[in-house]
Structures are given as structure tokens and as C-alpha cells.
Amino acid sequence: MDSDQGETVGTVRGGGHPDDADFIEAVVQHTPTTTPDAPDEDADAPAELTGATVSYLPVATRRTGPGPAPIDDPRRSDVDEWGRSEHMRSIVRRLYDPMYRYWFRVEWEGLEKIPADGGALLIANHAGAIPSDAPAIMHGIETELGRPVYGLADYFFRTLPVLGTLWSRGGGVPAHPDNAYRILHDQQQLALVFPEGTKATSKTYSDRYRLRRFGRGGFVEIAMRAGVPVIPIAVVGAEESMPILFRIPSVAKAFNLPYFPVTANSLLLGPLGYVTYFPAKFKLRVLDPITFDVEPGQDRYSRSRVMDEAERIRATMQDALHDMLRERRSIWFG
Amino acid sequence: MGSRVLITGLDTFWGGRMAQALEAKPDVEMILGLGTKEPKVPLERTEFVRSDQKYSILSRIVRATQVDTIVHTFLETNSSAVPSRILHEINVIGTLNLLAAAGASGTSVRKVIVKSSTHVYGAAEQDPTWFREEDTRTGPVRTRLERSLLEVESLVRDFAEDNPHLEVTVLRFANVLGTDIITPITYNLRKRLLPCIAGFDPLVQFVEEDDVVRALEFVTANRVPGVFNVAGEGKLPWSEVASFGGAHLLPLPPIRPRAFAAPFTRTGAIRFPPEMEGLVRYGRGVDSSKLRAAGFEYRYTSAGAVLSFARANNLRRATSATAPEYRYEQDVEQFFRHSPAVVRGIDT
Description:
The complex is a heterodimer.
Chain A: H1 2-14, H2 21-29, H3 44-52, H4 86-103, E1 107-109, E2 120-124, H5 133-144, E3 149-153, H6 163-169, E4 172-174, H7 177-186, E5 190-193, H8 198-201, H9 218-226, E6 230-236, H10 238-241, E7 244-247, H11 249-254, E8 261-263, H12 264-269, E9 283-286, H13 303-327
Parallel strand pairs in A: 1-9, 2-5, 2-6, 3-4, 3-5
Antiparallel strand pairs in A: 6-9, 7-8
Helix pairs in contact in A: 1-2, 4-5, 7-9, 9-13
Chain B: E1 3-8, H1 13-23, E2 28-35, E3 47-50, H2 58-65, E4 69-72, H3 84-102, E5 111-117, H4 144-162, E6 167-173, E7 175-177, H5 184-190, E8 193-197, E9 203-204, E10 206-208, H6 209-221, E11 226-230, E12 236-237, H7 238-245, E13 248-252, H8 257-266, H9 274-282, H10 289-293, H11 302-319, H12 330-338
Parallel strand pairs in B: 1-2, 1-4, 2-3, 4-5, 5-6, 6-11, 7-10, 8-13
Antiparallel strand pairs in B: 9-12
């Protein structure tokens, strides 16, 4: 309101340049804001009528006054700009908690390596026809550390009715470099990505715990740009919760799906198998955070450096997985 | 010397609003408005010139009046308002003639402002949550409106490249809500029936109509060439928009929603132009920080714009008042502006 009138006053008094913001501000401070001595005098009365209240009239009203006072950000839901709703998350957490506790019996190791504040890019190995690792990781961190996790995933989820909306309300965000940068750098939140992508979830049981290629190392570049650490999480158990026996590409093509798996669950339980996991014991190990000594905020980083770092992280995770599997005595009891 | 401004589409909502806003600015020496019909708002000193949609007389007007700023508000961003052939005529051919007139040799024009729309980004599943000005759309161009706006922007881009001495500003406005404007979305909210696609509740972004005018004023008064997104901060779910507006959601099936909407659109129960389909499926967000960094201050967030509409709508519903339409009488207006009998500078 002040700035509107101030601009008019400033230019009238000084006859100065409208660009001269400092000057205008100075004038605003020393000018009573009630009656600007602008030549447009008949603006006063209509401004009282139309400006003070919300105008209900069509365009025929005269609008030269400052208009109604600006409105603060009013909201009726707690859906944030990514589509995540804390209310929805708490419902999901309540429903998922028994599964987390008694079905998968999730066990964490090194959870203290995830910072309590500040952005960090969490990466994990991915498995299961319909991946069971993402909900477990998000649930674990949200309940243990009390901070939200945004799960970056393929935009394919957005195209699904109902599921896509639930996915979004539950903290799913389409994986796009700009989205990741905003979450990590601007908002200093935790983001979870699976660098292998669908190559990992579509692999058959015979390839279990064999890490796929880490894309083009995009996650490293994002972390470098955002100036946040990468924190790898090695997950054991998800592979056995819904193992894929083989895939049917023609069905996937017909329904426009990334892949169509035939799982052990579906052979045992029929269609119900696509919503039922085997009760494999989940063990999650948080590895040491990796920071990059590069200048954040650059548009591009050395391709070879990015690929090297991605490969090194992949090797570290592969080693950790082998280490955990060496210690594991039973798929179901850990 | 003050600036001499030419506004296109004086008879439309934005042209009228912009002229009113500029009239209050003493450093604007002359305001000239082009329109196909008479202005629908009372104007003090704006000169009105009737022209056709294609502005065939524009270059003569520009030469005769020596305008230095052109504010091109007359771009149609609602494809349900006009037939597609007219849409092309207004947007593409109109802009073409406008730019030809502005770029003629020895032109007096120094600045061109184009009011575009975030429809140019489209709405697709691969979109980033926030589009920046330099981002291009990810999905194919499906609607006539988007195609025509993209064509307009490419014309403007070429024009800016060919005329580096001119200051060319393109403002891409998000969907507008406010106290007075009528768009397909406000039409639906007024009818208390907001179409949505079953199972989808996308996040959408709005800009308040006062912020639209203020943004246009801002770029008119300041030196800010380039492309800028203009949208309120934050996003909100489509269902929340319905809740604010007191409207029911009308779920359409995810497959061929427009075919199912046809009976409703034909009877006038809802408006559902093609460009709205992508919006209610995937939503759209634009990063408006570039204009903010240039010094513009928003007065409304996205949700604030929705509330601004809702409040005005509540009042409209409570009083069901309609104001008498302003009638522009050429002779009377000319008399007040130019007759030596009128003593200027006093309150009339």
C-alpha cells in the first residue's frame, strides 16, 4: 500500500526518475501516506468506495486506489508445494507402523549419521517388484529423526490416478534436477533417491544384491550443486520381500508400464501377491556421508569427476551389501 | 518528457485495467488505447482508437502519435472465449502486425511489453515442479491456445533479437484469480461446480489480478528486458481451490475427460477448455523469483489470490448486485477530452 502511493508521490515531488528507488523510499518515509497531493484528485472518493472493501462490481468500477489490503497466505490444507501433506503422512505412518515393526522388523545401523538438520541426499539400493525399501526408509527416518523425507521417483507415478495423488501426498516428488536442488539447497531438507532407478526394481531374483549402473551420476552432480553430502544407505531384505521370477514385456507395453513382473508372491497368492510382501527381515546400514570439495552452485561439473564419484559410491555400497550378507544367517530372521 | 504509451485491447479486461492504472501516473504523458469495441471502463484521459483485431492501421498510428512504449495486453488466453480461427488472428497475426509497426525504420518505440501466459509451458507428467523462464515445455503441444501463444513468443523473441536497441519484456502470467476477472476457472467456481479428473488432485498456482496490473505497471516504469514468470508464491491443491470457492468437484474420468465434460460444457454448467485438461491432471508451477529479484513485490500468494476471489464471490452471492455497465459514448468522451469549453484540472 505504501509503496504504491509512495511511487506516485516520489515522482511528483522530485520530478525525478521512477527508477530511483532509494529516493522514492526516502520520500515515502517522510510523507504522510494519507493524502498524496497527486493531481488525480477524484481518485480519493472512489478509492474509499472500491478500495476499502472487496469490489463486487464487474469491470465498470474505477480502480485507482491502493486496493484491498494484501492477504496473508491462507491455507485450508497442509499440502506443501511438493504435494506432501504432514497430516496424510501421519495417517500413513500409523497404518504402516505395524508392517515396519512386526512384518519387516526393520533394524537400523548408523542412523546417527543422518544429520538432524540441513540438506542431505540419501541414496539407497533399490529392490522388489513394487519396491518395499522406499516406504521403510522414509518411515524409519521420519519416526526416528522426526524430519520429513522427500522420495524422488520416476514421474510415472504422477500419471496414475489415486495412487499418484497418494504418492504425492505421502512425500513423493518427481525426480527432476531442479526439484532436487530446491529441496536440498533452498529448503535444506532430506531427499531420497535410488540412483539405479527402475533397472534395479525390474531385475530378476538371480541378480539380487547386484547393484545396477548408477544412471549417469546425476545424483552426484545434484549434491555437488546443492552443496550437500551424499549419504548412502545399504538395504538388505527388500530383494526377498517381492522377488521377480521373470518379466512379460508385451503386457508392460500394452498397459504402458515401465515393466510387468511375475513375482514369487503372485505365483503363491495370485493377484493378491502384488500387494503382499514376504516377511523378509530388513536391515539398513547408513554409510559414512560423502562430501565433495567443489564449489556449489555451478551449472556443470566435470563429467569424469562426477562419474568417478558415482562409481566410487556404488563400489562402497556394493561392499557394504556383501558385508551385510556375509553376516546374515537367515533371510527371514536376519 | 513523460512516456507515451500505447495499450492494445483497451476494450478487454486487462487493457482497461492497465489504462486506468497508467492514468494515475503523472509521468505518463499520453495513453492511447486500441480496441475492437468501446472501452468498458470509465477512463479520464486515455484516447481510444477503434481498430480491427489484426491492427492493420497500427503502423500509421505509431508514426502519428510517436509512442515510445507499447503494452500488448490483447492476447487471448482462454480458448473457450473465441473460435480457433479468431484466436490465431488475434494472437499471432495481431502480434505480427504490432511488432512490424514497432520495428519499422525510424520508429519512436523504445519498449515493448507482451502479456503472455504460463500456458506456454503446458502441463505434462515430466514437468519440473517449478518452471524457470529458460525451461522449455516437456510435453507436446496439444492445444490451439498453447500453439498460438508459443508462436507469439517466438515472434517476440525474433523481434527482440533483430532490434537489440529496443527493450522487450515478456510477462508469463499464471492463471489469474481475483475480485472481478472472469476466466474458465472463476466461471466454474461461480457456478459452484469445478471439474477435476478423478483420482488426480494437482497443485496449481495463481496470480491475483491486482498483481497482474502491478506487474505490468512495474515493467512499464522500470528497465527490465527479458522474459519473466509472474505468479503468486506457493501452490495449492485443486481440491483446496474448490473448498475456498465453495464449489463441488465434478470428477471426470481419467480417460477422455473432455468427451465426458461435453454435456456439461454444452449446457453451460461448466467451462472446460482444452488447455484446462492438462492443468487439472498435472498442475503447473512456475518459479517467479526472477521478477522478484528485479524488484517487484507481490501482494498476494497463490492461496491469497484464491481467497481474494472467494471473498468477492461471497459478497456477490450475498448481495447479487450487478453494477450498471459503463457505456462509452464517443461524442461525450471527445467533448471532455478536447473541447475548449472544458476547464481542465478541476474535479468534475
